[in-house]
Amino acid sequence: MSHVQPLEKGIILSIENLSISFGGIKAVDNLSFQIKEKEIFGLIGPNGAGKTTAFNCITQFYKPNHGSIRFLSKKDVTVELNEHAVHEIIGLGLVRTFQNVELIRELSILDNVLVGAHIDYKTGLFGAMVKTRKAKKEEESLRCEAMKILQFLGIADKAMWPVGGQPYGILKKVELARTLMCSPRLIILDEPAAGLNDVETLGLADVIRTIRNEYNCAVLLVEHDMRLVMDVCDTICAINFGKFLAKGSPKEIKLNKDVQVAYLGTQEDQV
Amino acid sequence: MKKLLAQIKAYPYTKYILLGLVLATIPSLVYFDVLKSSYVTLVGVVMIYTIVSLGLNLLLGWSGLISLGTAGFMGLAAYISAYMTINLKMPFEVTLIVSILIPVAISVLVGLISLRIEGLYLAIATLAVSEIFRKTFAEFEFITNGFSGKSVRYPTFFGFFKLDTTMTYLLLVVFMVVIMILIHNLINSHVGRALNAMRGSEAAAQAMGINLLKYRLLAFALATALTSTAGILYAHFIKYVEPSKWNLGLSLNILAVIIIGGVRSIIGTFVGSLVVFAVPDLVLKQIPYFGKIPNFAYIINGVLIIVVILYYPAGLIKVFNDGKDAVVKLFKKSRGKTV
Which residue of A has its CA nearest to B204? Predict the structure, then answer.
């Protein structure tokens, strides 16, 4: 991957001039930002600002029209994400959650978490079918790892329960646990606090910080809950109508005029 | 002794081996005149269709893809194997491998074209391919013997070890039990979880590094491999292959097997196969007046499908499990009272 310009030291993700449009609507328009290693980075904006679309471009669910997305992969090589298929992204060390929890209802919580370890399995089809000793060992060790993560998130006692019918707070945690299985460099959380109550949201802030410290990874989150964003983020980037608005520490963003206008409207609007 | 029993109970393959052992006693029961000799053929056919249906269950139940060409691929394997053992005088072992590989190769080609797009395209493509096969079976007389059908013999192993009816029947039992165990392992492995993820949420599957096309192809190829195995066994157990058998009706019957028996249940697939392929001959035809109605079994199957979907979406296997739980509960209760 020599043709990709290496990232500066300390930067893990760099987005430059990202644009994507659907029909005539520019969902993301010339967006650029950078995320440092071990940083908790918040992407905020009013409804329809293009946050989730930007996420989907980074994780290659959408192929952007313009722009580059450079990422420092697990092997410490800078890669251009646009050159990878959507299922290859997790192997590079970039993993995501979904706004509306995407889990497999019929499987147990533990099995759902193990889906996150899919790329770590070396056993082939034949090994899986005849259950060779190697396959057994591999399954055993990854199962242990999954249990450790469930313990860390405090839901180990529910490991064998099916996912279908669990409360939303638990489901969000299961999705979080699933992302941790691949020892990621950057976790992308799409509205992690949506549907959680106040107590759960407070707990979530602690969990996000602990994940950053324990797993040594950066976190990029989109969130509507301003208390969570202001509480947990090191840096915040605000966007509106797909365009960059402001970037800075939570304090700076709070005081930024443009951001206030985007969220609350101007004086004339209110009259 | 109690410990040993508990150990046997905890062993994951116990139910499959137990089922195999029970089925293996049928020829001896026939020998001692407890059962009619037609039971061997009937149960043998049920086992063959269990193998096919396991393939479709892997595809529809676990992976969420629909194929309507099951019968065509089964017939293809049956004809290839018949041609190889009778006309080319090939050993059964070689026949088995080649007659599985050719349909699987064709299914991969069909899959490569139709599986890129999600949804019902596989169903349409397989239906079309299956109909092409059916026409081919009737027209290519130098291989298939056309409408007069092709006679086959029981399998011969290593060139000299000829099997008789009972031995072939036992071969079917071994095949079915081994396949059940292989599938049990597969669906409990990371491959099984990947198939489940593909059905449950395509977005999540992709985000977790599961290549959708690869795993769709894998599921389809595995299903075809099982279908082909069953086709080969059918040809060499019934000893006769005719072109009109491999029609859409058979494909739909196999679909009925997994819906009635149990989606995503291995033992349930056997139960469904028993209901769809044995009950008509054993029970329905004995009913006075109604038994004489042609295709009465189809009507019953249709009603059964509706009833099962309405009241037991997990299949008839759930009825058995519920019954077992109820008996265990009753047993525990009565024991609790006496103590």
Answer: A102
* pLDDT above 50 (res B257): yes
- For residue B269, give its domain range: 2-338
Taking the C-alpha atoms of residue A157 and residue A150, their distance in angstroms, rounded to an integer, is: 8
What integer pLDDT is reported at residue B339 of this predicted model?
Answer: 44
- Percent of chain A as helix, strand, coil, to the nearest 5: 40, 25, 35
| Beta bridge partners of residue B161, listed in sequence order | B157
Specify which residues A108 forms β-bridges with: A162
What Cα–Cα distance (Å) separates residue A61 from each residue in A52, A82, A156, B231, B334? 11, 10, 31, 41, 59
Mean pLDDT to the nearest integer, A171-177: 93
Chain B interface, mutation test: which of A84, A129, A137, most B Cβ atoms within 10 Å? A129
Predicted model pTM:
0.91
Select the residue from A102, A139, A183 to test the B interface by mutation, using most B Cβ atoms within 10 A. Answer: A102
For chain A, what are the domain ranges?
Answer: 11-102+183-270
Q: Which CATH superfamily is domain A11-102+183-270 in?
A: P-loop containing nucleotide triphosphate hydrolases (3.40.50.300)
Q: How far apart are CA B21 and CA A126, in angstroms?
A: 26
Q: Which of A269, A237, A240, A264 is nearest to A13 (CA)?
A: A237
CB A235 within 8 A of CB A249: yes
Q: What is the pLDDT of residues B143-169, one digit of tens each?
A: 888 888 889 999 988 877 888 999 999
Rounded Cα distance between A99 and A193, Å, is 9
- Write down the pLDDT at residue A1: 46
Q: What angle do CA A33, A36, A39 make, to 5 degrees?
A: 110
Q: Does A134 touch chain B (CB under 8 A)?
A: no
Total structural domains in chain B? 1
CATH number at residue B266: 1.10.3470
pLDDT digits (tens, 9 = 90+) for A137-170: 999 999 999 999 999 999 999 999 999 889 888 9
